[in-house]
Write a structure and sequence with these properties.
6-stranded mixed beta sheet; two-stranded antiparallel sheet; about 250 residues; alpha/beta; 8 strands; 10 helices; Rossmann fold
Length: about 250
């Protein structure tokens, strides 16, 4: 007879086993993985998309307060599927691969006027990941974006400090399925800088990181919160962007 305790633990153990020995590619679901959670053909497809270089991105229409933003790639369905598996499919084995993707726009910002000016002032740039709701944290058991941001920051060329200064009020709803206007209303004043961190933001340059930009409401709300806390400049950084929006132009200059 099965041990009831083992039966209850099966889902948790399965997640641990999938992390240690994933059964399939997180993108195409075929067997035959590399060591980064995807098969070699899918990794090559992602590499080609990212190799086209970071680009400036702005949703159309752009929400009020949307920050200047660089994305590693846009319209890449493989990346979108990987992000979904990574956040909500328990595929923490994708952390190293996604950190590689994130280093592309982070590195591009190392030569930006805002970051260069911060260096002249001998200031360390702050890298701030978007916050996660309490419900999402409970469901996922971790804050995957913050973990990937920390990994990417250690591999990038710009000395920076990663700090989780943003939080969400209890009024915020899950963003899934909301249109642009609903997202904007949902997040207005729902994103805040935690009181104990406000002094760290004052007069600093902040790279605000999210995984994927869709309507831009999340980045706009977070950027507004950082500006209210006194940030000198807020620049957006994402791994991907949806093709339902219109790019402001290629390149990072």
């Amino acid at each position: 007879m099965d041990d009831p305790g083992m039966t209850r633990a099966t889902p948790q153990w399965r997640r641990v086993l999938d992390l240690a020995i994933p059964e399939s590619c997180a993108n195409c679901h075929e067997a035959g993985l590399s060591d980064l959670g995807v098969c070699r053909p899918c990794r090559s497809e992602l590499a080609v998309a990212v190799a086209q270089g970071p680009r400036r991105w702005q949703p159309t229409p752009a929400p009020v307060g949307f920050p200047p933003t660089l994305t590693a790639t846009s319209g890449c369905e493989s990346l979108r599927r990987l992000l979904s598996a990574w956040k909500d499919g328990g595929r923490g084995d994708l952390d190293p691969l996604l950190a590689e993707v994130l280093t592309v726009p982070l590195a591009a910002y190392s030569a930006s006027a805002e970051v260069v000016s911060a260096r002249w002032r001998e200031e360390r740039v702050l890298i701030v990941p978007m916050p996660s709701s309490r419900a999402a944290m409970r469901r996922r058991g971790r804050h995957p974006l913050a973990e990937v941001v920390r990994r990417a920051a250690t591999e990038g060329p710009t000395p920076a400090r990663v700090i989780e200064v943003l939080g969400l009020t209890d009024r915020v709803r899950d963003q899934s399925g909301l249109d642009a206007l609903a997202r904007q209303r949902n997040l207005t004043e729902a994103v805040l800088v935690r009181r104990r961190h406000r002094r760290l933001i004052d007069s600093r340059t902040v790279l605000l990181v999210d995984d994927l930009v869709t309507t831009g409401a999340s980045l706009a709300a977070a950027a507004a919160a950082l500006r209210r806390a006194g940030a000198r400049a807020v620049l957006g950084v994402t791994m991907g962007a949806t093709l339902r929006k219109v790019a402001a132009g290629p390149g990072a200059d």
